[in-house]
Amino acid sequence: MSRSPAKVKKSTPTAGTARVSGVKIVKPIVYGCASWSLPKSHLVNDRTHGWKLYVKPYFEENLQLFIRKISFTLHSSFAEPTRICSEPPYEVNETGWGEFKAVIKIYFKNSCERPVTIYQTVKLFSEKGVDYTIKKP
Q: Which one, 5, 39, 54, 61, has least CB within 10 Å?
């Protein structure tokens, strides 16, 4: 019994970018904010704290295989309120005096996937005895 050869789909410019039905890829990430008090000798324009917003892999993986870029949108009072990270480390380091809600938007390499939006509070001060700050040398 002979079989006819399998039909091969011709490659098109969009081949490989379409969503595959029933397939889900899950990559755990860690995101957050770390803050620390600045020494009085380093205070400029009443900025009392240093802080960092970040997105990193939960496991030591290369997220560049899946992530095209990550945008961090800060409070409008910053000189450049939108910061783009196209490669690791996906983080923004700044100084300030007040707390606000930042928007983190993750864009995937596959353009068929919608970006994921995360809201993260930049927390500088502790509440109810919980200390959110870290000591930085």
A: 5
